[in-house]
Specification:
This protein has 235 residues and is an alpha+beta fold. The protein is built from 5 helices and 13 strands. The protein has helices at 4-9, 40-43, 89-98, 103-107, 195-205, and strands at 17-22, 28-36, 45-50, 53-58, 75-77, 81-85, 122-130, 133-144, 147-158, 165-170, 187-190, 211-220, 226-232. The N and C termini lie far apart (35 Å).
């Protein structure tokens, strides 16, 4: 198992990242989602809570250039499922699940972001709650070695989460030009502390120049209620 904060801090630009796991005491499901940016347009964002969902919006609307890949709902909450992604595939997954279809069915209709030369991967996660516990899935859709003509789809299924453990997946392996896509399975990481400790640890581990926003959620497995935290660099 890798120390989450060490893994996050190991590169100046992991891009956008999803963390899903179970709290140390085994009583809560844990979600973390962060965004980073190198361009002015990417950095001009904040997270805003909307009911049980999360949305991105422009911090300064007058500076918004292209909203297509930066304005979306990263988190959607259904009756028994919570979806977290780095793009508008959140809504694709939600729509498929509401139709009785699967996480995988939804993502097989999608591909990586159409933004050369990086072709940013689409990373996604979904937690399913039942019988006082939960399971989760993760996915990455990315180009084959940066080639636009070929998409690779990977799915990971975690049926029995263990206390104090989770998985971390992010869009980019490291900074670069073009930026190399994440490679390998989601990283097994430790989940430490309560929601405030977890939130602070993740935020402080992100590169100070490139981090933009962080969202965390701890879901009580007994009651289904949750706490959430939002940290925006733009205030």
């Amino acid at each position: 198992m890798t120390v989450l904060t060490t893994e996050i801090a190991s590169t100046t630009y992991p891009g956008r990242g999803i963390i899903i796991g179970k709290s140390e005491d085994g009583t809560k499901a844990v979600i973390g989602y962060f965004i980073m940016g190198r361009s002015e347009n990417s950095r001009n964002r904040v997270f805003v809570s909307e009911g049980k969902d999360l949305k991105t919006q422009a911090f300064d609307p007058s500076k918004l250039v292209d909203p297509s890949l930066i304005i979306y709902a990263p988190v959607r909450t259904l009756e028994n499922d919570t979806i977290v992604t780095n793009g508008d595939q959140t809504d694709t997954i939600r729509d498929f699940v509401l139709e009785g279809k699967t996480f995988e069915d939804a993502l097989r209709t999608r591909t990586f972001e159409p933004h050369p030369p990086n072709f940013t991967p689409r990373i996604s996660g979904m937690l399913t709650f039942a019988d006082g516990d939960f399971s989760y899935k993760m996915s990455i859709l990315k180009s084959s070695e940066g080639r636009e003509a070929s998409v690779l789809r990977f799915f990971y299924d975690y049926a029995q989460p263990l206390a104090g453990e989770g998985h971390f997946i992010h869009t980019y392996q490291c900074d670069g030009n073009p930026i190399p896509s994440f490679a390998g399975e989601p990283t097994l990481v430790d989940i430490k502390g309560d929601i405030d400790t977890f939130t602070n640890n993740v935020w402080e581990s992100l590169n100070a120049d490139n981090k933009v926003s962080l969202y965390t959620r701890f879901v009580d497995l007994t009651t289904g209620t949750f706490e959430e935290r939002i940290v925006n660099k733009n205030q």
